Amino acid sequence: MKLFCLPFAGGSKRAYLNWSKFANRSLEIEAIEIKGRGERLGEGFYPDMTEAVDDIYSWIKDKIQVEDYAFYGHSMGTLLAYELYYKVIAEGQRKPAHIFFSGRQSPIVKNNMYVSSTMPDDEFIAKIIELGGIHEELSQSKELMRFYLPVLKNDIRIMENYEFKEKTEKIKCEISVFHGLEDTIDGRQAITWNDLCDKKTKFYYFTGNHFFINDHVDKIIDIFEGELLPEK
């Protein structure tokens, strides 16, 4: 079983690199690197969500023909995972066994952005620090911010411009939703993922802020394995 992990805004595949250390050998965790960061730093930015999803699909399309697989997405990654599911179906491919949506309400919820790409840099950075997305000490590094801010702001921009369009069919694989109890996102809004799925949705709650995943890797991997490796 292969689990494709999709990044949060400003994130790269490095965010998930240590997850494999906690996982059963039967679960292969593959973090997806998207444009503008990490190994793909020089490739520019996506203009919109559609191009991002098309690009991700081009990276996974051959692999999902021969292996059972699932998606995990945190924050921005939930939107990528949601639209990627329908891209896979439109291309006539096998659907994923499971989708894990983490750290974000469903796209049904409108006006759900905590930060804006048009904010002045100082205000923008302060909001990201509140979310737990960057340590305050690191924000003082002008060199780091010179590289990081454009990436993060473009990711926020494509989320702001994303237009949810109701699909003719709901998601037909099982889904799970992860939520941080101290997140600025209202946990009641996270429940709206259930409205987009034909099957029963499972909800998991963790202590911590928007980036609760960093403190609960072992528990999250246990959930992955429980859902994806029933023989465990």
How do the strands and helices of this protein lay out in sequence?
Layout: E1 2-6, E2 28-31, H1 49-60, H2 63-66, E3 69-74, H3 76-90, E4 98-102, H4 121-131, H5 136-139, H6 142-161, E5 174-180, H7 187-190, E6 201-206, H8 217-228
Parallel strand pairs: 1-2, 1-3, 3-4, 4-5, 5-6
Beta strands, count: 6
Q: Helical amount among residues, as a percent range?
A: 25-40%
String of helices and strands? EEHHEHEHHHEHEH
What's the architecture, going by CATH? 3-Layer(aba) Sandwich
N-to-C CA distance: 12 Å
Radius of gyration, taken over Cα atoms and rounded to an integer in Å = 17 Å
Please provide a written account of the structure:
- This protein has a single domain (2-109, 168-228), classed as Alpha/Beta hydrolase fold, catalytic domain (Rossmann fold, 3-Layer(aba) Sandwich).
- The protein is α/β, with parallel strands linked by helices.
- Helix 1 crosses helix 3.
- Strands 2-1-3-4-5-6 form a 6-stranded parallel β-sheet, with helices on both faces.
- The chain contains 8 helices and 6 strands, in the order ββααβαβαααβαβα.
